[in-house]
Write a structure and sequence with these properties.
The protein is α/β, with parallel strands linked by helices. The protein has helices spanning about 10-20, 20-45, 95-115, 115-125, 135-150, 210-220, 235-245, 255-265, 270-280, 285-305, 305-320, 325-330; strands at about 60-70, 75-80, 165-175, 180-190, 195-205, 230, 250-255. It has twelve helices and seven strands.
Length: about 375
């Protein structure tokens, strides 16, 4: 289920770390910030904290607290004090938001790349810190890894999660000296407060029924409950897994995947017209209007592209099954939900709706 037109994976990770879990992001930023300040203080002392060295030119003298207001909340910084002279991070007093964005980018990239000590060291260098010791880098990587693991295994106790979107992204990775495909399985849901939440993320070697079954079972084991509707692609193994693990939930075909399959039935020159025609179905105010517009769409397609019309006639029921009723519930609750896709081709950050709900979400920057 790879999407050719989607959001860069790095931008997706950074966006979701910044918006989906403030507690996780706040802890990660504090870990990096404290380690970077400690490394700079060690460089000024010409020796690591607590190390006995003939080359030492200064000593630590405790810490002074400082609050740092960020989008993830207020972070309590512990700025190292020196016995002689003073230390203050040059990147903190001015352009605080820029420094915060840089740290968030570092955290997101470290998470994405696996937070190995070598990679964390290079990421720290991008902030101008070149004196990190291997022990400091290892500690940063370990703390991040622990926090990410805790986030992935956290209880899903903010339910019921009425609406859930699941999808997979195929990525090429190096394994044992070979380039192989792996599949990142992602689930996003709407919690009881009406906020979008990343429910789970796992990696599978194959996008098959067994992988989806294990992934969905892990979500229910962590507390996923109250699901009314699951939106996904029509992958046979995925649909079967949804029915087995969430038997009380309705299933609806993902609008983006459906549109992509429909457009493959018509010439490229006609695809913009067909896409616009299909979109009008989802813009209707009620169920009766949806049915009437679908009849109009079928008639228009029948006149020019009979094969596309037959495709719509045979598959539209699952696309429209619950869309309008549930869309009205979402709109009434002012819920901002959107299907996230990952644009890898040209690096443009973009959010696109994958389910036909007219939700508004701030564009990624």
């Amino acid at each position: 289920m790879t999407a050719p037109d989607s959001l860069p994976l790095h931008a997706l990770t950074e966006d979701n770390l910044a918006s989906a879990s403030p507690d996780l992001l706040r802890a990660m930023v504090k870990t990096f910030t404290d380690a970077l300040m400690s490394a700079e203080a060690d460089a000024m002392c010409n020796a690591e904290y607590g190390q006995v060295s003939d080359e030492r030119v200064n000593h630590r003298n405790g810490y002074r607290p400082r609050e740092w207001d960020t989008r993830a909340g207020t972070i309590e910084l512990a700025i190292p004090k020196l016995r002689t002279g003073s230390y203050f991070p040059a990147w903190l007093p001015e352009r605080r938001r820029r420094a915060e964005q840089a740290l968030i980018s570092v955290v997101a990239t470290a998470y994405l790349l696996g937070v190995s000590t070598r990679r964390v060291e290079k990421l720290a260098e991008s902030l101008g810190v070149t004196q990190l010791s291997m022990s400091q880098v290892s500690a940063m990587a370990k703390h991040l890894d622990e926090q990410v693991t805790a986030f992935r295994n956290r209880p899903l106790d903010a339910g019921p999660y009425a609406f859930v979107w699941v999808d997979a992204l195929t990525q090429k990775v190096r394994e044992g000296g070979r380039i192989v495909n792996v599949h990142a399985l992602v689930a996003v849901g709407v919690n009881a407060d009406g906020h979008r939440e990343i429910l789970g993320l796992d990696v599978a070697t194959a996008e098959d029924g067994a992988g989806w079954l294990a992934f969905l079972r892990s979500l229910t084991a962590r507390g996923l409950a109250g699901v009314q509707l699951v939106v996904s692609d029509a992958h046979t193994g995925l649909v079967a897994a949804i029915g087995a693990v969430l038997p009380g939930a309705s299933w609806q075909r993902c609008r983006t995947h459906y549109a992509r399959n429909l457009l493959s039935q018509v010439p490229k020159s006609a695809q913009p017209w067909v896409a616009t025609l299909l979109r009008t179905v989802f813009e209707q105010p009620d169920a009766d209007a949806v049915k009437a517009q679908m009849t109009h769409v079928l008639n228009a397609l029948e006149a020019k592209f009979p094969r596309a019309a037959e495709h719509v006639r045979n598959t539209a029921d699952r696309l429209l099954d619950r869309s309008r009723v549930l869309a009205e519930k979402v709109a009434a609750g002012q819920t901002a939900v959107v299907g996230l896709r990952y644009r890898l081709a040209d690096g443009k950050a973009q959010l696109v709706a994958s389910h036909g709900l007219d939700a508004k979400v701030p564009a990624a920057s």
